[in-house]
Specification:
Order of helices and strands: HHHHHHEHHEHHEEEEHH
Radius of gyration: 20 Å
CATH architecture of the largest domain: 2-Layer Sandwich
Strand order of the largest sheet: 3-2-1-4-5-6
Length: 270
């Protein structure tokens, strides 16, 4: 809907007035923070001059949607928008500088990370947050699975998060995930030296084109300690896509990555 509005040359404020909502509410619809009311989709579809088939397809999609599971679980308020956007993506490229990427983490590894961040926080809350991180992994399997590509720094294999037993299970799980046909995992070895990803971790998301002739666009997500930032302008997303390609080129290939993980299991986590 956001890309259809842009393609039609309609300002967000004008679209909000058309359907009687505030610009802030429209923004929440477009960012998947709130489900789209079918009547709003219908009215804006006409305003954006979509053909009848495309408009009706989007209206039907809005009718099928229920509030996302992340909107009713123990998800930090600042992180919920990202999960909503990730749930809509068809492809995700993730560069992580020092840890196992979130979509590949075991619940014990995730729990250990959460504990390290919040210290002596509520154990139930920590467990809930860890479970949310693992639940996101359901996108990697089942019908129409997410196409997931990740480059992670070799330090992720050696940083002992949660103890030897947790790391042994984590690396074994990483090997299992790497075998999925829709997953491409690559390790950036220490020997690569300086590389394009030294500026920090980021995620590039791509979305399916629901409307013929309207590109759904890409987004980049950059997370920091108590929040996250979305970048959606074409020069911004193109820049990070280039960074990701360079990091991938500097990394080991998929088979070499599996061999490096297995070597680490054999040498460090027997």
């Amino acid at each position: 809907m956001r890309e259809a509005r842009r393609a039609a040359g309609v300002r967000a404020g004008d679209a909000a007035v058309q359907v009687g909502v505030t610009p802030g509410t429209l923004s929440k619809y477009e960012k998947s923070e709130h489900p789209w009311p079918p009547a709003v989709v219908y009215a804006l579809g006409d305003m954006y001059e979509l053909n009848t088939d495309d408009r009706d397809k989007l209206v039907d999609l809005a009718r099928q949607r229920e509030p996302g599971w992340w909107q009713t679980s123990a998800v930090p308020e600042w992180f919920a928008p990202y999960i909503g956007v990730e749930s809509e993506a068809a492809e995700v490229d993730h560069y992580h500088d020092g840890l196992v990427p979130g979509l590949c983490q075991t619940v014990d590894y995730a729990r250990a990370l959460m504990t390290a961040v919040v210290g002596d926080g509520d154990p139930d809350k920590i467990d809930s947050h860890a479970a949310v991180r693992v639940r996101r992994q359901q996108r990697l399997t089942g019908d129409a699975p997410l196409r997931f590509s990740a480059v992670f720094n070799e330090s992720a294999l050696h940083r002992v998060v949660g103890g030897v037993d947790v790391m042994r299970d984590q690396l074994a799980h990483l090997l299992e995930v790497s075998e999925l046909p829709n997953v491409d995992l690559r390790c950036l070895p220490f020997s690569s030296g300086a590389h394009a990803g030294t500026e920090g971790s980021f995620v590039v998301l791509r979305f399916p084109d629901l409307i013929e002739g309207v590109n759904s666009g890409d987004a980049v997500y950059i997370e920091y300690a108590i929040g996250g930032l979305f970048l959606e302008k074409e020069p911004e997303t193109a820049y990070y896509q280039g960074l990701y390609r360079k990091a991938q080129e500097a990394a080991l290939d998929q088979q070499e990555t599996r061999e490096r993980i297995q070597q680490c299991l054999d040498d460090q986590y027997k």
